[in-house]
Amino acid sequence: MKRYSQHSIEIGDFSGVPFWKKAAVMDLMYVSYGIFIVILVIGSYILGAFDLLPYDPHEINLDLLMAPPESTGHLLGTDFMGRDILSRLIIGIQAYFLPGLLAIAIAIIFGTCFGVLAGYWGSGFDTIVTYINNLLNSFPRLVLILLMVAAFKPDIYYIMVIVGITNVPVVASLIKGKIQFLKQKYFIEAATALGLNNRVIIFKHILWHNCRSLLIIQATLGMAEAILMETSLSYLGFGVQEPTPSWGNMVQAGANYFMQGKFWPSTAPALAILFTIMGFHLLGDGLNNILERKQGK
Amino acid sequence: MSKEPVLKIENLRTYFYSKSKQAFIRSVDGVNLEIEKGETLGIVGESGSGKSVTALSVTGLISAKPGVIIGKIGFKANGVQKNLLQNLKNYVRINMNTGRIMEINKDNVGWQKNIDRLMHKIRGKEISMIFQNPKVSMNPFITIGRQITESIMLNTTIKKRSEAKERALYWLEQVKIDSPRLRYKNNPYGLSGGMCQRAMIAMALSSEPSLLIADEPTTGLDATIQSKIVDLLAEVKSTVGVTTMLISHDINVIRELSDNVAVMYGGTVLEHGPARDVLSAGHRYKHPYTAALLASIPNEQHFREKGYLQAIKGDVLDTINMPEGCRFHERCEMITDKISKLCKSHEPDLQDISPRHKVRCWLYCDS
Amino acid sequence: MKLSSVRPIALLISKELVIAAFLLLGVSFVIFIILFLSPGDPFSTMLKGQMLSGAAKAGAREALGISQAWYSQYLSWLANMLHGDFGTSTRTGLPVLGEVIRVGINTLYLTVASMLLTLLLAVPIAIFSARRGMTFFNWTSTIFTYVVSALPIFWLGYIVIYISMHQFGFFPLAFGSSSQKFDWLNFMLPVFVLGIGNGTISEVVRYLREEMERVFSEDYIRTAHAKGASIWKHSFKEGFLIPITETIATKIPFILGGAVVVEQVFNWPGMGRMAWQAAQDRDYPLIMGITLLAAIIVRLGSLIQRVVHIMVNPRASQE
Q1: How far is C-alpha C93 from the geometric centre of its chain's CA atoms?
Q2: Which residues face B274 on adjacent strands?
Q3: Which site in A53, A114, B229, C257 is 20 to 30 Å from C123, CA atoms measured?
Q4: What is the mean pLDDT of residues C176-204?
Q5: Chain A to chain B, count of Cβ pairs less than 8 Å apart?
Q6: Between the CA of residue B152 and those of A130, B124, B168, B199, what are the distances in Å?
Q7: Chain B contact for C8, CB < 8 A?
Q8: Four-residue CA torsion sign, B195, B201, B206, B207
Q9: Residue C1 has what pLDDT?
Q10: Are B324 and B345 in contact (CB under 8 A)?
């Protein structure tokens, strides 16, 4: 039986509706969780950058191996070498935060350029941009990164450049689609008829007013992917190397202990990855839903 | 004199639920109609009056949620006699409070199964439907020929594909489509709106139904094509003589094709009678809404005299927040002091003002 | 499919083939540029003594294979590849093409099986959501797919291996081991991990559900319903076949990427693990060959999707 209820006599009174039925509420929950994660990440990055850590992440403490969480002053316990896990997690953010921002910046800046070229001036540019899109999409990202690692040094910044470049097509096609949509609605024609020159139209009207939410969403998803790439790479032994902690190599280092039943050294960073990536995904999707609902209405 | 009607709709109500407003929409709220064999009933009204929903309710094609259909639809033709809504009320429970619906509990699965079982032998076979926007109403992935033969093989005794193809070509000729053999192999994408509509009419008639429901068949077509389709429907009416329920907001289309006319507003029928009576501006007993509708048809003489296009004052009825009393009273221009209290508080019944003509208005009814 | 439409379809398919060829050309160029700019200078060793006969006829110092211009190096390399010569691995000395194909089959198995698993999970959820609407079950399964999409796939692998060890007493890294009773685990566990953990499930479910919902609300489905036809039959092409082939084509790169990690976790002898090894060893010919082959697989998937689209959709053939 499905129940449909009008919760109060007055139309438009939503007070009686249970919260999980209100789609807007669900999206707000997603977005708030996402923002919480973002704040956590940025905050941890700053802590790490200024070395404001509870313990030295490299300090080996042989007396206190594999301490469980919340014991003897270590909030998240210690790993198999007695090092404080919480501090290592915080430092691990350094591995992907700035590089991730680089990837996002590249994707958005170049993606917007190409998108505008393709959407606004169409035809020739469009074909070239579509070709480049399909070209970059042909590579599995990790394989291309391995190629880069073989050719150059396994520096995380180089790798993030590649990640950014491979995201350029996604941003470009979104922007191009938006511009074509606006064209179809005669938005651009109207603006030109009003006498605005191209530059103003592009920057102010198209990008700022119409595309900014789209770009923010792409930024969140881009960071999620950057984290994924960085952790996968450091798991594989590239990227950040021991003893510098990265969430990926922390999981890898704890592998043997995991098989012996000592789960925590691998699980702590894995959960960090899980909750952080989920935060960015939910943020992106939640914003997307809110955006769609606003436009739908 | 009146034979047993092919379709007899009694107190039909169809309700929807608006998630954004968290409230119920009473799209069809008490409709009574009858169609006799061979008759063409035209249903006319503005958008939102519930006329399309009425048509879809007859065949149970309501897809929006919860899509509760209540009432009795008696269908008798071709040896089949049944209530098309039988037992469906077992799957629905409605709680009301001071005339407003507060809660509906619906067993979606049971409802769906039951209505599919009820309609199984009816849809396509006994009742055929044609819709507006014919180009998007045909499957773009299949040729129109195959779509017609599919209908024939499903709904008639013809089971062999070659025979069905012959029959399909016959009907394509009947609807005056050019080069039927060629069009048979075309996809809807390559055909114009008018040709698609002819194909859809062919598809609907090929199963030789007892009732044809035409939901805004001319809407969405160019004006010149519209008149051609109207001509086609008139010709089909005289050659095939199928009982038709025709729905349109275009009064001229209704006037050309209907024997009887029902005027709908706010989910009910306000006036129901012979076409020439209902649609003549000078008729003695006229529902104010019908009068206003007829007056609002763009009329060159009127425009020249007055200088503006006549409209009906006020806004279309909000089917969520129903006013008390007569549904039209807020926009009515013919209220007299004598009945104004009645108009505001009580809804009139549909009463006979002559043997075949009913009106729902306090002006002509006894309370 | 009528005979009269066969010719334009053949034309369109050839057009797609040409486009795919152009893209692969671009792919090879990108790979070449990356390695050309590499400080390791892989090409002088690879192409020493080989060059186009045209340049040989032109004579000059290029004959010694020293400091060739980039375009002739590219063309030599390309010519070699078209003859099937992808160079030899600097570590093992074995020809690259043969080696990659040998292990590529394992990766192909992993990829295809994982893709099937992902679809097997996503399609029922999508269909259920599309028909029944947003119920509590749907909401929870949506959250679940979000969690699963963010899981680090290597950690999931560890969990699976641990369970396998302690439930079945089987350590699945001994590929092709003598323990016959649970050998099937060797094949199923990596597929399970890659199929669930490749990070695309939530997107796939969302995309499939949206497409199905959209198609179910189309007018032509209503017409089909009104004439007593089966709406599943009528919605199949647009609501099922096309979205699924589109999903497969676009998600292959992600699954191949995930395969690199999964092959590492399970020590699976595939292209991914070979790529990892090649990156470690700076084995340029090998890593180039693998990248190229991976791109070929992706483009092949895309080509198949385009062909299906053309054959099903009469509109596409008239664009």
Answers
A1: 27
A2: B260
A3: C257
A4: 77
A5: 44
A6: 46, 9, 8, 13
A7: no
A8: positive
A9: 46
A10: yes
Q: C96 in helix, strand or coil?
A: helix
Selection from B132, B129, B116 nearest residue B209 by Cα: B129
Closest CA of chain A from B91, distance in Å: 8
Residue B198: per-residue pLDDT: 92
The answer to whether residues C193 and C153 touch, using CB atoms and an 8 Å cutoff, is yes
Residue B341 to chain C, least CA–CA distance (Å): 44
Encoding tokens for residue A289? Answer: 């839903």
In this structure, are residues A27 and A20 in contact, taking their beta carbons and an 8 Å threshold?
Answer: no
Q: What's the per-residue H, E or C state across A204-272?
A: HHHHHHHHHHHHHHHHHHHHHHHHHHHHHHHHCCCCCCCCCCCHHHHHHHCHHHHHCCCCHHHHHHHHH
**B213: phi then psi, degrees, rounded to nearest 5:** -110, 120
Query: Nearest 10 degrees: CA dihedral of B329, B332, B334, B339?
Result: 10
Range B253-264 burial, b when 16+ CB lie within 10 A, else e: bbbbbbbbbbbb
Indicate the SS3 state at residue B183.
helix
Length of chain A, please? 297
C272 vs C278: CA distance, rounded Å: 10
Supply the DSSP symbol for B97: E
Closest Cβ–Cβ partner in C222, C238, C314 for B61: C222
The 10s digit of each residue's pLDDT in B54-98 is: 999 888 888 777 778 888 888 888 777 787 777 777 777 777 776
Contact A4/B97, CB-based, under 8 Å?
no
- Higher-pLDDT residue of C8 and C290 is C290
Q: Which of C6, C109, C13 is nearest to C303 (CA)?
A: C13
Q: For B108-123, how does the pLDDT look when each residue is reduced to its tens digit (9 = 90+)?
A: 777 888 888 888 888 8
Cα distance between residue C152 and residue B358, in whole Å: 72
Q: For the whole prediction, is pTM greater than 0.80?
A: yes
Residue B252's closest CA among B226, B271, B213, B274?
B226
Structure tokens at A128: 């070239």
The reported pLDDT for the residue numbered C183 is 66
Of A2, A9, A12, the CB nearest to B21: A12
Is the pLDDT at C174 greater than 60, yes or no? no
d(CA A120, CA C259): 39
| pLDDT grade for C61, boundaries at 50, 70 and 90 | very low
Identify which of C132, C238, C318 has the shortest CB distance to residue B141: C238
Q: What is the model's pLDDT at position B3?
A: 64
Percent of chain C as helix, strand, coil, to the nearest 5: 75, 0, 20
Q: Find the residue in A nearest to C198 (Cα).
A: A228
- Euclidean distance between CA atoms A3 and B106, whole angstroms: 6
What CA–CA distance (Å, rounded) separates A287 from A220? 10
Measured distance CA(C199)–CA(A278) in Å, rounded: 11
Q: Which of residues 48-67 of B touch A (CB under 8 A)?
A: 65-66
| Predicted pLDDT of residue B323 | 72
**pLDDT tens string C104-159:** 888 999 999 999 999 998 898 888 877 766 666 777 877 888 898 889 999 999 99
As a whole number of angstroms, the distance between CA C16 and CA C249 comes to: 14
Chain A: residue whose CA lies nearest to B97: A9
- Calpha distance A232→A183 (Å, rounded): 41
In this complex, the chains that touch B, judged by 3 or more CB pairs closer than 8 A, are: A, C
- Residue B43's H or E segment, with its range, is strand B40-44
Determine what percent of chain B falls in helix, strand and coil, rounding each to the nearest 5: 35, 25, 40
With vertex at residue B340, the alpha carbon angle to CA B337 and CA B342, rounded to the nearest 5 degrees, is 135
Question: Mean pLDDT throughout A281-289?
Answer: 87
Question: Which of A68-77, A268-277, B110-119, C171-180 has the least mean pLDDT?
Answer: C171-180
